[in-house]
Amino acid sequence: MKKTFIFYCPSQDKLAKDFCGQSSMFELGDISWKDFSDGFPNIMILNSRQLVNSDIIFLADFSCPKEIFRQLAVLYALPSYGIHSLKVVLPFFPTGTMDRAAQDGEIVTAKTLARMLSVIPMAECPTQIYIFDIHAQQEQFYFADTVRVRCMSAMNLLLNKLNCDDNTAVAFPDEGAYKRFGCYFSRYHQIVCEKRRGENGKRIITIKEGDPDGKRIFIVDDLIMSGGTILECAKVLDNFGAAKVSAYATHGVFPNKSWTKFVDANIHLYVTNSCPESISKIDKTFIESGKITILSLFTEIASATLNNN
Q1: Which CATH number does the domain 156-295 belong to among 3.40.50.300, 3.40.50.2020, 3.30.300.20, 3.50.50.60?
Q2: Is the pTM above the cut of 0.90?
């Protein structure tokens, strides 16, 4: 009987242990993540002799650029140990916001990263790569046919939190978010906002469709960087009579601790654990008090990786 090993980068330690705590069919892979004195990786797969004919799930986190090289080194090496299959779970595709060149000289790093993942050596089965709510749908076509990309969504995690009643509404900060995620919330009143730049370059948010008056509203998007767009959207909804405004994004990137802006604005924030390093920096008192809610991707990942061959 084939074994299923869960390998993981250090930041995905908790998610890996969730797998092994769920079922005895999983066994933790053992990797020594060290560095040489010059700073370059000194990595060793400690249980490599046990991997022959096994299925491997690797829990990756590329949200920190310096960690990408170390993890790619492991991913390129694993198939050489005679494994049966390799499934790479990369919840957040970090270069997704640079998906096209707007002017000459710009480099589309989303395509660069897709190329790097596409040359993972093949095991007996093609490598599968699982990504949640990739920033632009066309990015899945940047990968070569040598790997299979599974584009998934974490919107069901929010759906499980919503009350299906006439007072609950879902808002989208722009037309793009509505086109991508509106189908998940067809049972709810939907509000579509519109974003444009004023003469002085300031972001201007207006309501294009829907009525927020008296509604408990959840603003939905794929990721939060500075949070500026969602926060401006929340102000507009509040001005038009929203009873309460909360926000949900699959990926909480939060450069410069931008999650603090939502706490200061008294907006209940929901994010997943797709960026574990960023999530670990959130003040635990805000999580414990319910101002910020972290939703785990574990169930979605486990279901997808076990059902897809």
Answers
A1: 3.40.50.2020
A2: yes
